[in-house]
Amino acid sequence: MSKAHQTLHRELTRKKGGSHRKIRNILHELEGLDVLLDKFSAHPRRADKSNDPALDAAIARQQSRMLAIRDKGEVYWNAELDSNAGLGAEYIMMLHFLGIAGQPSFAERQRKIANYTRQWQNDDGSWSIYARGPGHLSYSVTCYFGLKLAGDSPDAPHMVKAREWIRAHGGAMPIGVEQRFLLALFGQYDWAGVPPIPSWMVLLPHLPMLPRALENKLLNIYDLSYWCRISLVPMSVLYQLKPLVRIDERLGVEELFLEPRDQRRWSFAPVSEPGLMSWGGLFNVGAKAVKALEFATNGVVAKVALNKAQKWILDHQDDSGDWGGIYPPIMYNIMALSRLGMPLSDARIVKAFKALDRFMIYHARCDGLHVQACVSPVWDTAWALYALGESGYDIRDTEFQRGIDWLYSRQILRDGDWAVKNPNAIPGGWCFQFYNDFYPDLDDTAIVLQALLFGGYPRGQAGRVEQTRIGLEWVLSMQNQDGGWSAFECGVDKALVNHIPFNDLNNMLDPSTADVTGHVLEMLGHFGFDLGFAPCRRAAEYLRKTQERDGARAGSWWGRWGVNYVYGTWSALAGLAQVGEDMSKPYVRQAVAWLYGVQNPDGGWGEGCETYKEPERAGREISGQSTPSQTAWALLGLLAAGEVDDARLRRGVEWLLTRQLPQGGWDEELFTGTGFPNAFYLNYHFYREYFPLLALGRYRNARCGLKPI
Question: Is 430 helix (H, G, I), strand (E, B) or coil?
Fold first, then answer.
């Protein structure tokens, strides 16, 4: 821990004083942490050979590859994240909104982003949100408009095909709420069809002192998930101001509408409106009232709200220039600040553009720029080190320890938005990205702590022990009342939020999930906690209650951050096993049976993104294709349940062994990462690297009689 971090941490501890001690009291089992860490400093290496030459060779090959695929000269891993081409099209829109698309440097960037966008177009003219997925109307309209702004002729063959597909699938009227919002900024969609995002929502207070029953019926921005909050505040500014960027009508998308302009019924309400006495009905009535009264809030209230929104935006910008460590908020915050009068030459906006630059990857094959939704160095590095350690790599190696040191340097020791609902906790988590100090997450923190445990604690490095302790304290303080863990914050789970008209994707909550809870449990088990520890008991009960019971998914767990039931089931089984659950219990055996039941004929596993919409396809991929990452997850789940000697598990191992490339690694085109179910998916390029290594290493350890540490 650096001196600056030590000073910051001491100051926060002093301010929170006795309140913080209440949290530390639940960690009385950690009084022996120093002893535990000494034990891990000298723990025996994992198995590095077996009586299976093919298995040993595959692991050795992959260990060497893991060290070779890091960024040149760096000690961390940071893979490309594929999502969809719509983000690049939105970047083009931002350039035109700001009036800078014609500047030489931005014009060249626009050209390359357009090149990448065309590469993503499907043969039928549409754009999808995951590889081999069906065309997606909203993103197809977004890409079409972005390409027109970039100069593509509407008569070009690819634009004709896109237009025909869009019109055949309903045209531009029924697109998603966010796409309506963006088009409205350019006069291409009427604001009457955009649900209200009142700027005064930032004035609504968080009132924890109220009785819970009453507080649950009130909303403020801290009841929304971080990824929505950090975008909606600047979007509320733009909604209040409703700027109009005038463009040449030839660049517009009038041709995408099926209805003549004078016959369009602009409405943000659902086609079949809920009953008036339902929450959905009441929210719709309220939203219509807000719309009707917008003219009355353009005075003092609007001015106060806009000033507060601007302060909130600036207060939430990281020193690096990022907002939330993800692309859309950075874009919206730049746009909002520019309309609030901040010049683009302002240092804060200049830093924000540099942050966006870090999200871009050049693709020589199409001379294109890929605008990533995010970057994942902490997540990738933690999993890579964990897989190396579990597979028998020498943790004393300098390259391994340099990675461990880098992870220590990324711990976040300042309060973020999570402290609004958890004010007494001392910070100590890790985020997913290089920079995202306001929003560390539980998933990353759990995996980082596992990796650090493998890294050992050489004597004389007391700072490492303390950093580990406060990381554990922060995780335990963030447990939800239902016993599970959310991704970023605790208590962001009010069902009311699902009825907000702007929430058409149902992605504005951050409730407990089985996958994050499983990862946290597995980490706690590595540190020696078991079901005798109250937080572990509560989490295990949460997992028992959330196991699927219906139809084709019975016995599995839903996966929030990975596709889908295979991911959730692995996470839950691994967590339960590590804290000492009896893996012979019927509900565990049902999960094992489910995993075997969805194994493909080739021995591997593969599950498609469509299973979020079609749960009857749980565990399956439409094409029947197996993937390396999902095969690894299934194996890890089965190994946690003690299935090392089953021939079906061995067939999964053989699938990985026979499909490993000569230089190491595996091919994986299909998306297996989830951003928002049914709306946004990710292809983590290193999932095909470290998860198979982890699975093969754990299989070898199990065959050699070594249990997970």
Answer: strand
With CA atoms as reference, report the closest residue to 689 among 626, 629, 634, 627.
Answer: 629
pLDDT at 198 over 90: no
Distance of CA 211 to the CA centre of its chain: 32
Q: The tokens of 20 are what?
A: 């913080």
Please provide the DSSP assignment of 187-243 as one string: TSS-GGGS----GGGGGSPP-TTS-HHHHTT---GGGS-HHHHHHHHHHHHHHHH--
How far apart are alpha carbons 93 and 95 in whole angstroms?
5
Residues β-bridged to residue 682: 673
Token pair of 391 as six digits: 């597979």
Count other C-beta atoms under 10 Å from residue 594's C-beta.
Answer: 23
For the stretch 414-428, pLDDT in tens is 999 999 999 999 999
Rounded Cα gap, residues 679 and 138, in angstroms: 10
Q: How high does pLDDT run on average in the chain?
A: 90
As given in the structure block, the two tokens for residue 316 are: 């939430």
Given the residues 443, 493, 510, 515, the one annotated as active site: 443
Contacting residues for 366 by C-beta, under 8 A, at least 6 apart? 115, 116, 118, 119
Distances (CA, A) of 690 to 288, 378, 384, 441: 50, 14, 5, 21
Q: Per residue in 590-599, pLDDT tens?
A: 999 999 999 9
Q: Which of 438, 479, 324, 449 is nearest to 709 (CA)?
A: 449
Q: Which of 8-22, 88-102, 106-120, 375-389 has the lowest mean pLDDT?
A: 8-22
pLDDT tens figures, 324-344: 999 999 999 999 999 999 999
What is the distance between the alpha carbons of residues 570 and 575, in angstroms, rounded to a whole number? 9
Instruction: Tell me whether residue 443 is one of the annotated catalytic residues.
Output: yes
Could you report how far apart the first and last alpha carbons of the chain are, in Å? 26
Residue with tokens 């969809």: 84
CA distance 199 to 335: 15
- Compute CA 471 distance to the chain's CA centroid, rounded to the nearest angstrom: 20
The CA-atom distances, in angstroms, between 345 and each of 166, 338, 350 are 39, 10, 6
How many C-beta neighbours within 10 Å does residue 663 have? 10
Domains and CATH numbers, the chain: 3-81+375-478+513-703 (1.50.10.20), 84-260+267-371 (1.50.10.20)
CA torsion through residues 466, 470, 473, 475, sign: negative
Coil, helix or strand at residue 580: coil
User: Which residues have C-beta within 8 Å of that of residue 609, sequence separation ≥ 6?
Assistant: 129, 130, 133, 563, 564, 671, 674, 681
- pTM metric for this prediction: 0.93
Cα dihedral sign, 403-27-446-506? negative
Cα–Cα distance, 639 to 579 (Å, whole number): 15
